[in-house]
Design brief:
alpha/beta; 17 helices; 2 domains; disordered N terminus; disordered C terminus; 3-stranded mixed sheet; Helicase, Ruva Protein, domain 3; elongated; single chain; Rossmann fold
């Protein structure tokens, strides 16, 4: 199925289900099952509301707005980009702290963010009003410590302005040069807030629970704080307004990646930077081959870096500077990177084989990881009809 047909099926056909979205996302995003289920459900609900709104402009309902929290580099933005692409919905991403309150300076008004979404929707108003706005670094809006400072008051002003947009109203938005304007209703736009929220942990509650929840609380009283679910009061104590939190009913955590997940990202994901590099070399009928020991070392280094999945690409590019430099002058060449080159980075330790045929190397146990990536690339190429998304 072509990418256009797939997106059309997801938006208008039975593929709009949360499970259909998740099946596609699973091909690109490794792990994070809880977050994928929450976000795929939110987008599927949003798509259904969008279709209902197209059929009946007077239909009511609130968007399933979401807060996604977790460490940097764990895949929050990547997950949303894939969902927007699969759903065919326009999406714009803006850093929440860069938004300025009404009448402020040196930043971007929320109406300008709305106009950016309008442009992403090809100036189609119905598509704009069914789009997605991602507020990155949302945790930096939290007011912590002294609430009387100028900075604290400024962040509260931004939270108040966002509240009016998230709860849904009509706003007149202007182009950057002021020559065009459009009125956008935000009541059907899906807002997703992202942030690391470092230090946000469940606190001991002195509240008395009644009914079913009291049994659950009693059963869990002996558990560690990390095992308890975050309550609304935890978010408020962190420095977010109760009213704003009330307009964002869904919250999910993205966890730090494990070493096994780093391995699966590199070897099994269709977003693999190793797969991307192999395609780059194949453009000139060249080939790239890394030994299993080298790949293990890259994975181990990335998992210890603390900067998330993007470390895989960073370390691969750092390692492969010489092969990438020589690639443009070679045709039908296999570049072999083994543990010796990994240690020295010297040209004399980079092995070059004439011909892109790996027949002398493929099948060897020491290169089985790269063979695994190659088979995935060949399978994907065979499935493609009109190119990648």
């Amino acid at each position: 199925m072509s990418s256009k047909d797939l997106c059309a099926n997801i938006i208008y056909g039975p593929g709009a289900s949360a499970s259909a979205l998740k099946r596609e996302v699973d091909r690109y995003v490794i792990g994070q099952e809880e977050a994928k289920i929450t976000l795929c459900t939110a987008v599927a609900m949003h798509l259904q509301r969008y279709r209902m709104r197209l059929a009946d402009p007077n239909s009511v309902g609130t968007a399933p707005n979401v807060i996604v929290y977790g460490p940097s580099g764990s895949g929050k933005t990547a997950l949303l980009r894939h969902l927007a692409r699969l759903s065919g919905l326009p999406m714009t991403i803006e850093s929440a702290p860069s938004i300025i309150p009404s009448g402020g300076k040196n930043g971007k008004l929320i109406t300008e963010v709305l106009y950016d979404l309008y442009l992403k929707a090809d100036e189609n108003l119905p598509r704009t009003e069914g789009g997605i706005i991602v507020l990155d670094e949302f945790d930096k809006l939290a007011v912590r410590g002294d609430q009387s400072t100028h900075c604290a008051q400024y962040m509260y002003c931004i939270q108040n302005d966002l509240l009016t947009f998230v709860e849904g109203q009509r706003f007149k938005c202007y182009s950057e040069d002021g020559t065009k304007s459009v009125v956008i209703d935000t009541s059907a736009i899906l807002f997703v807030a992202l942030g690391a929220f470092e230090g946000l942990t469940p606190k001991e509650s002195s509240e008395r629970h009644v009914g079913f929840s009291s049994d659950l609380c009693a059963a869990g009283e002996g558990g560690a704080a990390s095992d308890r679910k975050l309550q609304l009061s935890d978010w408020i104590d962190y420095g977010l307004k109760r009213e704003l939190l009330g307009r964002m009913p869904l919250r999910c955590r993205i966890n730090a990646l494990t070493e096994d997940e780093y391995r699966r990202i590199l070897l099994d994901s269709e977003n693999s930077p190793l797969l991307e590099l192999e395609r780059f070399f194949r453009y000139r009928n060249n080939s790239l081959l890394l030994s299993n020991q080298v790949i293990d070392a890259v994975i181990r280094k990335a998992s210890l870096s603390g900067i998330g999945a993007r470390a895989l690409k960073s370390f691969l590019y750092e390692l492969l500077q010489l092969p990438l430099f020589l690639h443009g002058d070679r045709i039908n060449t296999t570049f072999v990177v083994d543990e010796t080159f990994y240690q020295t980075k010297k040209a004399e330790d980079l092995k070059l084989y004439a011909g892109s045929d790996r027949s002398k190397l493929t099948g060897k146990k020491s290169f089985s990881y790269c063979d695994r990536v190659l088979k995935k690339m060949q399978k994907k190429d065979a499935e493609m009809v009109d190119g990648p998304f």
